[in-house]
Amino acid sequence: MFKKSPKTKQFNLFSFPSGLMCERESRMYDDESVWHNKFYKQVTSKVDEDIFKPLYTTEQEDNRVGRPNASIRILVSMMILKEGCGCSNEQLYEQCRFNLLYRRALGMVTLDEQCPAIDSYYGFRRKICEYEEQKGVNLFDKMLQANHQGTSY
After folding, report:
1. pTM higher than 0.85, yes or no?
2. Is 102:43 a contact under the CB 8 Å cutoff?
3. Less Cβ around it within 10 Å: N or C end of the chain?
4. Which pLDDT tens digit goes with each residue over 110-141?
5. Which of these, 24, 43, 26, 13, lies nearest to 111 by C-alpha position?
């Protein structure tokens, strides 16, 4: 069954990276004008997960309905980051697991949040391609167009 990711999270006071940094680095990390915070605000938080609902709610040949293993919002944002940075899948995955700026850009703001497994990332990409082959609709393009139409920069 398809289930949207929560937009708000319950936080542990001691799991914020900025709380463990010195004051200057903390200010820079939390600054709204830096790339990772802009990316979260303008990209990650605007991903409409409902567009990808058909990937998980259509009945397959075996009559089973799947659900995403990870936040669709994060998986889509990972795909955008990969293309924007020009890195390989493995480089992207390493950055998303260990680089605080990438994690913040994806909305993983606490240290105890787990990055989606690389198999979930590959599986999501595969589902998008299979859906386009079967239905003739590129859901990723549809999401980008919907975001572009609703954006006022």
Report:
1. no
2. no
3. C
4. 888 899 999 999 999 999 999 999 999 999 99
5. 13
